[in-house]
Backbone:
């Protein structure tokens, strides 16, 4: 039984009629349960390497999702690959299967003014369904590229100056980002998948910086998510030693530490996706010329 089953059992809106007051109370309780699940999941993932990896897997698939929503998907349906609400599925003439239970996430609603004059945003509970819960045979396609193309994709997402060298002195690595010089060094002849692990980690360092004691761990996590998303072997990644600082934090603090990882993942992937689109356009032009 999932942690939201009690909510579903107590509040089955399809079989109940609410007064205005009852419905308001239902929505209030539903939102409180969702926020509670976010906090519980945040606290849970930092105590166990497998649970933490499960969260990273989710965030890698849904890089545009907020940390809170990625935690919610991790708690309710970590194997989800494509989530849409019923209206979005129906627009493609696709409908949910009988007894399919929704995944509850949060979406921004109306803005409001706080007592100090700042602007806040109300969030509403949104019900979405995975592609496995609807009547379609379509499935999300995995991106696969050969090593040469994948190297170009990674290198073109680099924001620093790029310098190709025969070897990187004093380090046993195929890629290294120099914070002081803002240079990404890449050694010739580096082999897959090691080079992709190292490249993605150095790209993450460009995004995250090195201001805190756990920034190297964050870059390692971003590297894992990027490699996972682009089907690079991730069997050598190990999350059994989560930094004690992270384990000792409150739920809100944990979410704040996860945020730079999510942002780095989204930013790097956006540049990678843009370059992939460029390659696709160029390929189509060549085909038309033929």
Residues:
């Amino acid at each position: 039984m999932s942690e939201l089953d009690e909510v579903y059992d107590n509040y089955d809106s399809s079989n109940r009629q609410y007064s205005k007051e009852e419905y308001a109370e239902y929505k209030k309780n539903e939102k409180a349960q969702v926020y509670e699940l976010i906090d519980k999941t945040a606290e849970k993932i930092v105590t166990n390497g497998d649970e933490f990896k499960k969260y990273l897997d989710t965030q890698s698939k849904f890089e545009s999702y907020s940390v809170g929503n990625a935690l919610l998907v991790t708690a309710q349906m970590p194997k989800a690959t494509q989530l849409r609400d019923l209206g979005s599925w129906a627009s493609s003439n696709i409908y949910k299967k009988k007894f399919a239970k929704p995944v509850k996430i949060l979406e921004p609603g109306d803005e409001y003014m706080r007592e100090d004059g700042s602007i806040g945003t109300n969030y509403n509970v949104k019900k979405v369904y995975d592609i496995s819960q609807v009547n379609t045979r379509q499935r999300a396609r995995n991106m696969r590229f050969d090593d040469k193309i994948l190297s170009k994709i990674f290198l073109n997402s680099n924001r620093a100056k790029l310098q190709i060298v025969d070897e990187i002195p004093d380090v046993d690595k195929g890629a290294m980002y120099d914070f002081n010089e803002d240079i990404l060094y890449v050694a010739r002849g580096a082999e897959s998948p090691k080079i992709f692990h190292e490249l993605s980690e150095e790209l993450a360092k460009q995004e995250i910086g090195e201001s805190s004691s756990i920034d190297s761990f964050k870059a390692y996590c971003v590297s894992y998510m990027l490699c996972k998303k682009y089907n690079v072997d991730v069997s050598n990644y190990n999350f059994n030693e989560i930094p004690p600082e992270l384990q000792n934090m409150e739920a809100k603090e944990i979410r704040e530490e996860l945020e730079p990882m999510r942002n780095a993942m989204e930013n790097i992937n956006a540049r990678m996706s843009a370059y992939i689109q460029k390659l696709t356009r160029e390929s189509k032009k060549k085909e038309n010329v033929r």
